[in-house]
Amino acid sequence: MVSDPPYRIELKPYGAALLDLARERPEIVCLSGDLTRQCEVDLFRDEIPERFVHAGMAEANMMGMAAAMARSGLIPFVHTFGVFATRRPLDQIINAIAYPHLPVRIVGFMPGISSPGGPSHQAIDDVALMRSLPGMTVIDVADATETRQMVRAVVDVAGPVYIRLKRGEIPSIFPSSHEFSLDHAQEITPGTDVALFASGMMLAAALRAERTLHEHGVSVSVVNVPVIKPIDAETVRRVAARCRVAVTAENHSIIGGLGSAVAEVLAEAASATPLRRVGLADTYAEGAGSASYLFRKYGLSTQHLVETAWTALGRHDQPPEATEVPVDAGEYAPV
Amino acid sequence: MVARHGFGYLGQALSSAELFAALYGAAVRYGTDRIVVSPGHYVIAAFAAAAEMGHADDALLAQYGRDGSAVEAIGTERTPLLDYTCGSLGQGLSAAVGFAVADRILGHGDTRTFAVISDGEVQEGQVWEAAMFAGHHHLDRITVLLDANNSQVDGPVDEITTIEPLADKWTAFGWDAFDVDGHDVAAIQSALGQSIEAERPQVVICRTSTRHGLACLPLDADGHFIKLDPNLAAAAIDELEGRLATDGQ
Fold it and tell me: SS3 for A171?
């Protein structure tokens, strides 16, 4: 169902998919907050300039304009980095977009600690902020295939959508036959010991952790949860009920994101399956020279997932070691 | 509308009454143009003006501020007659800009967007983000009516911060600015008429007072949120009806 790492890298799968769709759908408009190439929409700007808006470094105004454009019958896709898409214009998103339930698609690039740009550039709370807004769909996809399919899947969602996307080199994990669903999370490997729920960039690490644990006799069900809101509660309950422990993996604070969403589902279901949340443990991330350094320092590595599952299962012996996957240029492997 | 509760956004209605009279009475083509009321507290004046022009009935106004009403004191999505919900200050001009950009993309060359904003709101940075964008793109289908009533919650605007020179600021952002007596309907209408000919976005700065038109209001009435006890409400109604009777002669 999924390929093995190292994964082949694609460039601009989102930008190409949006342009493809916009050729068919004249109501799609594209707004950019001075990060046009970085958000892959230079492709849109160069081919359909009449439907492209340079909003400049003015996120509050950009969200307000998008809201009015949506009220005029257009479908705005709004682009900047995740931090600037959610923190600066939060009040505008709430009052102008979320409350009127308008079809604005807010696309925030560079999720979590994938940016070595320091806490000012790290969107570690964007999912939490957007998930708390009534009617907001929240998406964190794992690879290029899902990214392409997601663009078509969200265009006709009635209300607002927040999409967080990895910037730059995008791994191709799923085959083209994979079907992205707004309604269903996908159980990628069947397992009975550990239910491992992962979103976005952490899916690759979750798949790698499954291999390591499997080789040491631990059966892991990896569940891909690209849609964090509305969460597929039925799949979360079903897989967690079958396993001895549940672990969530997100490139985000453990407060308010995927881990919280899964915890809420399990608590309301009176689940007896213990839960561990892997992500940023209520901290900002400093000392960045590279993303891989931060993923290790703050406990978002494959090895950390292995150790979390191991100890959650009550094992006191030495946890197995996840082997590094060597990568060449044009390839991607999780930390 | 305010008398029933004994308090409310009466100061805003008093300062903007002539502004809305000019807007609804002459400038707006109902069903073609758009109206954004950026300070959501001003919807009371928009409702009254719309009712006067026959776009809303008195039964709707009677529901103003009542439990379960679609006509809340600050506009909501259920509020009729307006094209965009505001309330958190400083956001309405971005809406007007977005409508104007959408009209360009959709080829709706004839539609105008009127935005009412207040002087206190220009303290919000978003107003200037929107003003800069509109100036750069020559969005000449936008007209702003700015109610300069020198009133905000903590007191007179000019005691909180300096927003002047307002006309120069808008001009510097690429707008055509008109500075008029905001209680003179003819002056506002004249500025609106000139502004519609302009090739740049336009702002009509209306100099007003939150106590205008009601001599019975105490001198220290809080312009943002006026308390109107039953005696004062009765005096206000007497004063207004007396003036109507006089003017009608």
Answer: strand
B222 touches chain A (CB under 8 A): no
The reply to whether ipTM tops 0.90 is: yes
Mark yes or no for CB contact B77/A60 under 8 Å: no
Average pLDDT over chain B, rounded to an integer:
90
User: Which pLDDT belongs to residue B227?
Assistant: 80
Closest residue of chain A to B97, computed from CA coordinates: A65
Asked if pLDDT for residue B124 goes beyond 60, the answer is yes
Pairing of strands B226-227, B7-8: antiparallel
Angle at A146 between CA A285 and CA A69, to 5 degrees: 85
Contact predicate B142/B96, CB 8 Å: yes
Q: Is the CB of B98 less than 8 angstroms away from the CB of A60?
A: no
Across residues B204-229, what is the average pLDDT? 87
The owner of tokens 């960045």 is: A288
Are B91 and A60 in contact (CB < 8 Å)? yes
- A55 contacts B132? CB cut-off 8 A: no
User: Of B84, B93, B133, which is closest to A71 when you measure between CB atoms?
Assistant: B84
SS (H, E, C) B54-81: CCCCHHHHHCCCCCCCCCCCCCCCCCCC
Averaged pLDDT in 10-residue chunks for chain A of 335 residues: 90 98 98 98 98 98 98 98 98 98 98 93 98 98 98 98 97 96 97 98 98 98 98 98 98 98 98 98 92 95 98 97 92 94
Amino acid letter, residue A138: V
Name every chain B residue with its beta carbon within 8 A of the beta carbon of A98.
none
Is B45 within 8 Å of B17 (Cβ atoms)? Answer: yes
Neighbours of B137 (CB within 10 A): 17
The closest CB to that of A68, out of B87, B98, B129, belongs to B98
pLDDT in tens, B133-169: 999 999 999 999 999 999 999 999 999 999 999 999 9
- Side by side, which strands form the sheet with A227-229? A52-54, A28-32, A75-81, A105-109, A161-165, A137-140, A227-229
Q: How far is CA B93 from CA A65, A185, A298, B164, B228, in A?
A: 9, 41, 42, 19, 31
Look up residue B51 and give its two tokens: 């009712």
Contact B83 A66 (CB under 8 A): no
Give B248's pLDDT tier (boundaries 50, 70, 90).
Answer: low
Q: Does B125 touch chain A (CB under 8 A)?
A: yes
Shortest CA gap B173–chain A (Å) = 15
Would an 8 Å CB–CB cutoff place A29 in contact with chain B? Answer: yes
Give contacts of A61 with chain B, Cβ < 8 Å.
94, 97, 126, 129-130, 133
